[in-house]
C-alpha cells in the first residue's frame, strides 16, 4: 500500500506522525502513550505464561487496553485516515487503469549498468535537521561517518584526491535523500538498508524498497588499491550512487 506513495509524500507522513506524538506528550501529558506502554508490557509478560487461566485473562484485558490506548493516540488516528484515503485512491485508480503484467524472459534479465556489478543477497559537521553536501572546490579527503534525523546528504568525490587505500563513507539517517558521486576510476562497494524509499546504484534501480538491504560491488573491488566503501542506512528516503 505505502509502495504507491512517493518517498517525499511518505516522509511528510512520518514527520506529521512525529509532530502529533510530540503534541500528545506536550499538551495531553502523554496519557495514552503511558497507558499503551503499560498495557503493552502486560501483553508481552502474560503472552509467555498463557498456559495458566489467570494469565489468559490478564492477556485479554491487557490486549484490549493496549488497542484502545493506541486508537486514542492522535498519530494513530492520523495514520488510519491516511490508510483509508490511500485505499480509496488506489481502488479508484485500479478501476480506471487496471494493471498489466508482462512476463520477462530469463535471458532478458540481468545488469544493465555500464559497470559490471556483483549482487550479494542477503567531511561533515553533524547536522540533525539540515542538508549537507561536500564543498564545491577541492578538499582534503577524510572518511565520512555521519548521522542525522532530517535533511539531504550530497557527497561528491570528484573534488578530492582519494587515498591509495579504502575510503569509507558511513551514513545513518532517519528521513531524507542521499546522493553520492564517485569518479570512474575508483572501485566501489555499496551496502544500503532502507525501511522505505528507492535506490539507484550505478544504473541498477530499485523503485520501491520496503525493509530491504542491498549490497553491490564493482567487479574489481576486491583487488583494487583505490576503492570506496559506502555503508548507508535510511528509515525513509532515496539513495543515488553514480559515476561522474
Write the layout of secondary structure elements.
Layout: H1 7-28, H2 31-47, H3 53-71, H4 74-96, E1 117-119, E2 132-133, E3 144-150, E4 153-156, E5 166-175, E6 178-182, E7 187-201, E8 204-218, E9 227-236, E10 239-243
Parallel strand pairs: 2-4, 3-5, 4-6, 5-9, 6-10, 7-9, 7-10
Antiparallel strand pairs: 1-8, 7-8
Helix pairs in contact: 1-4, 2-3
Structural class given helices, strands, pairing? alpha/beta
In oligomeric terms, what are we looking at? single chain
Shape: elongated
- Radius of gyration (CA) equals 23 Å
Classify the beta-strand content into a percent band: 25-35%
The pLDDT mean sits at 79
Number of domains: 2
Instruction: Give the N-terminus to C-terminus distance in angstroms.
Output: 35 Å
Helix and strand pattern: HHHHEEEEEEEEEE
Helix content: 25-40%
Largest sheet: 10 strands, mixed
Low-confidence stretches: 99-105
> What's the total number of strands?
10
Count of DSSP H/I helices: 4
Describe the structure.
There is one protein chain. With 244 residues, the chain is α/β, with parallel strands linked by helices. It has 2 domains: 2-96, no CATH class; 111-243, no CATH class. It has helices spanning 7-28, 31-47, 53-71, 74-96, and strands at residues 117-119, 132-133, 144-150, 153-156, 166-175, 178-182, 187-201, 204-218, 227-236, 239-243. The protein is elongated. The two termini are 35 Å apart. The model is unreliable at 99-105 (pLDDT under 50).
What can be said about this structure in brief?
By secondary structure, the chain is an alpha/beta fold. The chain is built from four helices and ten strands. The chain has two domains: 2-96, no CATH class; 111-243, no CATH class.
